[in-house]
Write a structure and sequence with these properties.
The complex is a heterodimer of chains A (259) and B (279).
Chain A (H helix, E strand, L loop, with lengths): L4 E11 L5 E11 L3 E6 L5 H8 L7 E6 L2 E2 L5 H8 L2 E4 L11 H11 L4 H14 L15 H13 L5 E5 L7 H18 L2 E5 L3 H6 L4 E5 L2 E5 L19 H15 L1
Parallel strand pairs in A: 3-8, 3-9, 6-7, 7-8
Antiparallel strand pairs in A: 1-2, 1-4, 4-5, 9-10
Helix pairs in contact in A: 3-4, 3-5, 4-8
Chain B lengths: L11 H39 L2 E6 L5 H10 L4 E7 L1 H7 L1 H4 L11 E7 L4 H9 L4 E4 H4 L1 H39 L1 H9 L4 H41 L2 H4 L5 H30 L3
The chains are: A alpha/beta (259), B alpha+beta (279).
Chain lengths: 259, 279
Amino acid sequence: MEGKTIISFANVSANYGNGHDVLSDVSFNISSGSFYFLTGASGAGKTTLLRLIYQLHQPATGQIKLFGQECDSLSRNDISMLRHKMAIVFQEYSLISHMTVFENVALPLRVRGFPNDKIKKLVTKTLEWVGLGKYANAYPLELSGGQQQRVSVARAIIIQPSILLADEPTGNLDDENASRLMELFIQMNKVFGTTIILATHNQKLLENYHFPIIMVENHHVAFSGINNDSEPRKWKGPKPQSHNYFSQLSKQFEDIGNA
Amino acid sequence: MKKTPLVFSLVREQSIFMTIVISILTFLAVLAFGIALSIGGGVVRWNNQWDKYATVQITNLDNTNTVKKIFSANKDKIESVNEISKSEMEHMMQPWISNGAKLTDYLPQMFEVRVKNASDIQYLKEQISTKAKILTHASALKPSVSAGWKLVSITGFVLILILVSIGVCISYISRNIAMLHKHELEILNQVGATDSFISKQMQIIVAKISSLACFIGFVVASPILILILTTAHSARIGLLATLTLSNSAWLALFLLSVTIVIFSIYITKKTTIRILSGK
């Protein structure tokens, strides 16, 4: 499933204006369709790396290429268009509290100008898939941390992104939901070739799923576990409920592609 | 299709505040523009009324017949010639003549001439100037007309000040809304919304509020303008009596309200895009 380079960093440094580099001289290439874990100590720069890829933060030096495009010459509009092909799941959910779960998940589709009937169909299916079908009319603050995390994931996956960046997406989930979420990400990676970078501290995940690891340490990144066997190991926690959802979701994703 | 902004929400107090501020400013703008238009229209009418009139004053009475002949020779240009009698002159000059009866022997011979076209006055002036003094009523009333134009300039300046105030207000309110929704703006950016898409969301809110506010401002200002004009007419004094608003002037006032709505939407767009690009 892996293909041409989709994310490329060349000697990238990043700071927050205080003179101290969070990341320094970072260079790597990530191929389309690959799945990486991103790990490192708290404050090591994992979130900064994800923000750099998502163009939420500009590098102090160096060059970033996304989909073969140099990012330093992009206008704000170009970056927005680039984000139409990417999605990000933040640790702190980034949900809009005065909008219902349904409206939060529908937001990326509304921004892209999808018609209402299509939005209703897609959001309903995606919410069902993340196990929040009956919470469509609830407000984020009425949900638990784990449920809010799933809303955030639903909002990210509904557009079938080419690149999915996830910052500790399983941080607030129990084993069963963490397992379901991992299965979803793996399915997206396998079926749609979505390039996924998943930041996590969860040792269990790192041990159970054999994906290559990007390690952020001392302001630099190092890669480990890159081999041809990218098949995930079986999840040892509770079994996911049903895999019918995958096929349903796949069908919906095809619909998005044809929209 | 009903247009509603995706993520922005105004709290009740903000909406009421914004509606009241724009209503008051629109009210003042319509009033200022209405007064400017009515004075401007009045001055133009006043000018048109008097620039066909002139007073011919003959101090050397030997020239009277020559002047009369000139009048006859230009019958095609002259609408009417009214000779002011000696008794009328004495009556007009009463405060200055008083009991000095001898002064009446020195009163000039005077005619009030009305020409067909304003341009004919100049021709007549050239013909008569060696024999008598000719003074157009328009030039005699110049100070009054000049005062009228000054009033138009002042109200025009007030109108500009009001429009600038509207711009500053809308810009401040838009900035406030955007700042209150900073979190929502970030999320919209994250899900791939372009700056123009986000500013459109803000514009929908401002368009709704300013449309209602401008309507209120116009509706309240109109009867007050009518009241001012009626009062001016009832004064029956020179320029004041000529103040009026034509149908096209009312249309211009309505268009001013529409312009304020469009202006508000434009300012909102500029402000939001400036905030989004971090300027």
